[in-house]
């Protein structure tokens, strides 16, 4: 009987301990995800806020979606009055940090649309990280005027 | 290259600082030539500044390309937001000319489709290389194409300033990304009201 009690207690502590660990591990939260759609066959931009709720640095290495054939991470910069843009292979986000993909800065560039999209639609975009599992995110399709 | 263009511009702006209208954005009244161009509009028609001065509208001039995913739509959306916040009678006296420096991809039809997302006051234009070189040299607008990727996609680096002209095509002010919306709205209101005299 005592053995049973102690094994229940042990089991319970193990459960509490693992639950505690799972909580401490935290998660990667993405909010305010939107895809800015333009009419015609031109690229769209994706913006979102990412919160690294884990206790370790994470590395965003790309994204993909069924709605576009190609997705790239880009950074726009204004330098001496010139707008320029270049591809970004990866983005590091420190533990506890918020990182924003926002107009005139970091953005996802969606190219070669393969699905018909309308304002208000939801598009699932898979964010890919180094050394951790993918994070699927629903992006809301918005018009440029809505931003 | 950039220093060559921007530094003299900044020096001139500084020297010109005491004259003119005291715009909250940057005064260009003494450093830029009047509105002057020959381009192809979204209807595929060759047009000049005269076609766009006859209605007594103030003009915003912005250079970019439709395959620009971030900065161009962000700038145009910002202009749309600010102009939509103007009284309707003021808004009716304003036009935004969006000049594509990427005529290989931006046909008149593509420009018409694109500008429709922003509002009726947005008019797309482009031209052949000689026509674009003429207008970009005139307003010291630099642009360059990156190497195409394996799918033939390429990005275009371009000046991000928006130039404002009054209803007679005289240069007034220049808006940078860093200028707050309230400064742009104030200057636009004054520019249009001045034109209505």
Give the overall average pLDDT of chain A: 87
Distance between the termini of chain A: 66 Å
Tell me about the largest β-sheet of chain B: 8 strands, mixed
Q: Report on the biggest sheet of chain A.
A: 10 strands, mixed
InterPro entries (chain B): SCO1/SenC, Thioredoxin-like_sf, Thioredoxin_domain
Keywords (chain B): Copper
Pfam families (chain B): SCO1-SenC
Protein name (chain B): SCO family protein
Structure write-up:
The complex is a heterodimer of chains A (147) and B (197). By secondary structure, chain A is α+β, with helices and mostly antiparallel strands. Chain A is built from 1 helix and 10 strands; from the N terminus they run αββββββββββ. Chain A has one domain: PCu(A)C copper chaperone (Immunoglobulin-like, Sandwich). Chain A is globular, with a radius of gyration of 20 Å. In chain A, 29% of the residues are buried. Chain B is an alpha+beta fold. Chain B has a single domain, classed as Glutaredoxin, CATH 3.40.30.10. Chain B is built from 7 helices and 10 strands. In chain B, the strands form 2 sheets. Chain B has an 8-stranded mixed beta sheet with strand order 1-10-9-4-5-6-2-3. Chain B has a two-stranded antiparallel sheet with strand order 7-8. In chain B, strand 5, helix 5 and strand 6 form a beta-alpha-beta unit. Chain B is globular. The mean pLDDT of chain B is 90. Classes of the chains: A alpha+beta (147), B alpha+beta (197). Chains A and B meet through strand 4, strand 5 and strand 8 of A and helix 1, helix 3, helix 5 and strand 8 of B. Strand 5 of chain A pairs antiparallel with strand 8 of chain B.
